[in-house]
Amino acid sequence: MYARVIQVPVDIGKIDAGIDAVDMAMKEVIAKAKGFAGYYLFVDRNEGKAISLSLYDSKEDADAVMESGVTQDVISKLAEFMAGTPVIEHYEVALKP
Questions:
Q1: Which pLDDT band, with edges at 50, 70 and 90, does 31 fall under?
Q2: Which residues, 6 or more positions from 4, have their beta carbon under 8 angstroms from its beta carbon?
Q3: Of 74, 89, 80, whose CA–CA distance to 24 is shortest?
Q4: d(Cα 50, Cα 66) in Å, to the nearest integer?
Q5: What is d(CA 72, CA 91) in angstroms, rounded to the nearest whole number?
Q6: pLDDT tens-digit profile of 48-97?
Q7: Which site in 30, 43, 55, 75 is 20 to 30 Å from 69, CA atoms measured?
Q8: 57 Cβ partners below 8 Å, 6+ apart?
Q9: 96: helix, coil or strand?
């Protein structure tokens, strides 16, 4: 299993609208990708931070989504909720319950 983590500062006044927009974008676009295994969104309402975690069956599946431009398209659509530049990282999932 493979994970993509996107960390981004967010506009505190737009967090709830941003959560709804992320949920819609994930369900409409990313969730349909081959090998997609789920996602989580974490927010810190006091500090104005958000972390998105998306899971894929394999590194190849995660890479294919990134290479297709879908991730960047979704980030672009969510720019109005961001207060800075997203940082994108990739990890192998080493433990899973």
A1: confident
A2: 52, 53, 54, 56, 62, 65, 66, 71, 88, 89, 90
A3: 74
A4: 19
A5: 18
A6: 999 999 999 999 999 999 999 989 998 998 999 999 999 999 999 999 88
A7: 43
A8: 1, 2, 35, 36, 37
A9: coil
3-class SS string, 7-25: EEEECHHHHHHHHHHHHHH
Kindly give, in sequence order, each residue whose CB lies less than 8 Å from that of residue 90, ignoring residues fewer than 6 positions away.
2, 3, 4, 5, 59, 62
Measured CA to CA, the distance from residue 43 to residue 40 in angstroms comes to 10
